[in-house]
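Q: I have 560 residues here and want to know how they pack in 3D. Can you give me a structure?
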Amino acid sequence: MLTELKVRQFGLMEDVRLEFSSGMTVFTGETGAGKSLLVDALSAVFGARASADWVRHGAERAELNAVIENNDKRLQDLLAEQDMDVDEPLLLRRVINADGRSRAWLNGVPVPLKILQQLGAICLDLHGQHEHQGLMQAEFQQQLVDSRVDTGVLHDVKSAFETLQQARKQLHHLQNQQGESAGQATWMRAELEKLSALDIQIGLEQSLISQVEAGQNVAQIQQAGAQALMLLDEGDEGNVRSLLAQASHTIEPLTAYHKGLELASDLLAQVDALLSEIPPYLNDAQDVALDMESLQTDEDRLAVLREAMRRHDCDEAGLLALMDDWQQRLSLLDTAEWDEAALNENVSKAEQDYCAKAKVLSDLRAQAIADLVAALCPYLDRLGMAGMQVKVELVCLQEQSNAWHASGWDNMIFMLSSNPGEPFRPLAQVASGGELSRLVLSLKACGAFIHAPAIAVFDEVDVGIGGETAWCVGELLAAMSKERQVFVVSHLPQVASCAQHQISILKTQREDRTITDLAILPSHERAAEIARMLGGVDAESLEHAKQMLHKGQMLYEGCQ
């Protein structure tokens, strides 16, 4: 529920602050006083696209603040998603600059504009903003009917359709695989044979490079081993080990007299021990043989590997992945006949399951349509459209499997006959703006809009009506305010008389500027405003206004 609204420098409104209560509140005033501007202000609070025209001429910015009671779980869930306190009232703030840019806050925290829009989707129902267009759309019409259907049945149909789609997808994939030519399968097998012969492993290229380079340098390896062995142990007295022996023999007699010589002698002994372990490795290097066959094999294998990696633009891991994919695809081709039979059976079972659930949903929709039309007709009669007939055609597409979807196989078309004897035609081709407005009001009154927002705003819902029909509109709006907070912008005294609260909208002059002021009317001042709406404030019109207010309040109380 909206409890407070503050508006500054918004259009003709300079500085307005209003407090609201539950029930039905009507806004009245002379034509052009700015009644619709209030609807714009509420739209702006809940994230409507900003317009520079909303900023009062000469002002730098417009500011709107609203306080909303936080007693809706959907609101609390939205706050929780934003890591905000879910127990406090909602404080909405919107600032619109003169250049059309705007900023938004929620409970003092800057938020994207879409957060206000999400709040608006939960809290605010602006009658006429979208229902007139939405009512002519097939999806919206289907929602009106499905709101009267068990949600469990709707979920079952959706689940069955998803299962069917998955089965169809698997079959389609298999059939696409089968469509590959014999040449493609032959090519894959040939490639697999080539790559399998390489015995590919991660790092194979580097391993082959090392082996090839070793084979290409056999002579150098042998020569290096022999030369190192000679320098180490087999040359004249100038070899390494003989020189070490001479050094050790020189210092050995004197090690007892100097610590440094003792340590040097120990280290020389360790070095000699290590040098004695080297000759076997050098002998192996001398004995290495050149295996031209192995070298050629390694070179050929490396060349084939590199060519395969170049051809497929990948490394060893990529080749392994390709081989795995080809093996799976070839396996599918080999077993396609059996797999296709199994998948066809899965599709058939899924279709049977979907058909059974869609049939249940279709039958429930037929009953829901009958109930909706029966509930709607009395309200149409009361709103001066007794000659209007409404029906909903339920078109079953059971035989067109390509037209099945997650919400069943039905198409629904709202049809209208404005006058007795006239043929039924689609809603969009027949209804006028006033008829659509009252049709939407009738749908709301009969409960067709499930989970409607808690704040309903009606602007010009009473255009083109009067007399007893106007009383019916007022009574329906009053009845709606039993469970929702209802705001109505009206020029009809009958509608205004049914409201629990009334706010007068006045256009005044102040310092050579036009200003729209709003004033909450106490009960003793409402009669004068109703009299003005009747055409003049005199004793007779005042008495008439009082009678209308009495009747309106009786109707209001009768609805509560």
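Q: Anything worth noting?
A: The mean pLDDT is 83. Residues 182-334 form one domain.
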